[in-house]
Design goal:
Immunoglobulin-like, single chain, 4 helices, alpha+beta, 3 domains, 17 strands, 4-stranded mixed sheet
């Protein structure tokens, strides 16, 4: 008597149903992977999108989720397994399956954090040689190049200048500075640089040397040679074209900034000159 052949047992999960679940899982993982990569790229390229400190925290959370999405994709596509053996706490550590890939991505996330969005402020104190220089500082400007970012700030009371919101990656780097003032200059010279710091730095300011140049003309606009020019105890004569030059100090008070010009055959000329004036024209009138 023959035994009828046994019927094969049906799989618990039909192949079609299993394929459908795999496709859905893969699609969900792919969408999550794309979104996570876009968010990580935004954090890397624009770290200032979030308040200071939040970018790093979100970066690590997104890295963990990215590792999980990659692990799901790897398992769904290739049914791939991997195993890592190592020692931890006097024992053997074994990690199998897509968890290895997830672990690698998370570790890379810690090794390669996004640029810091933290910023710092810097205060510059301009030290003037006297009270008059301190007064002359009011309303002037101090410019500073922070990398490729030129900044200009107004000088406040007592020579205080504030530069705010400097990127953290610029800390400790040199930055050229220049004082925009008609009567004063940085004592260290026009090529002064400062090391960017979150504290305060001090710069000495001094009076500018004043080279006053000008020309003496007649009524027809012709240069007059041989004219005598006086100011603050300094004396100069005009050349054949009527030009003259005086070496003065911008520190001169108003009472000593009186320019006088004399030439025989012409009426004397006298007028006050503003400190820092670079060029002046004087017209004399004939007396004969």
């Amino acid at each position: 008597m023959s035994t009828p052949p046994r019927k094969p047992k049906a799989d618990a999960t039909p192949p079609a149903a299993e394929s459908s679940h795999s496709a859905k899982a893969l699609m969900a993982a792919a969408v999550a992977l794309l979104v996570l990569l876009m968010l990580l790229a935004a954090l890397w390229l624009k770290p200032t999108l979030l308040p200071p400190g939040w970018g790093e925290k979100l970066w690590y959370v997104l890295t963990v989720l990215l590792g999980f999405a990659c692990a799901v994709s790897l398992f769904t596509l290739f049914r791939s397994y991997a195993r890592y053996n190592g020692k931890a706490m006097n024992g053997t550590l074994q990690i199998g399956g897509p968890g290895v890939l997830m672990l690698v991505i998370v570790v890379l996330g810690f090794v390669l954090p996004p640029p810091s969005s933290t910023k710092f402020d810097m205060t510059v104190f301009l030290s003037a040689p006297d009270d008059k220089a301190q007064e002359a500082l009011q309303g002037t400007e101090l410019s500073m190049h922070v990398g490729t970012d030129p900044r200009t700030e107004m000088v406040e009371a007592k020579g205080l200048v504030r530069f705010v919101g400097i990127p953290a990656e610029m800390l400790g780097r040199p930055a050229p500075v220049a004082l925009k003032a008609p009567l004063l200059t940085l004592t260290a010279g026009p090529a002064t640089t400062l090391k960017l710091t979150s504290g305060a730095v001090y710069l000495d300011v001094s009076w500018k040397p004043w080279q006053l140049e000008g020309q003496v003309l007649d009524e027809k606009g012709q240069g007059l040679a041989g004219a005598e020019v006086f100011m603050a105890g300094q004396k100069a004569g005009t050349d054949t074209s009527g030009r003259f030059s005086l070496s003065l100090s911008t520190k001169l008070p108003v009472s000593k900034r009186m320019l006088e010009v004399k030439l025989q055959g012409f009426a004397p000329w006298r007028n006050s000159i503003a400190a820092g004036t670079e060029d002046v024209q004087v017209q004399l009138t004939r007396t004969q």
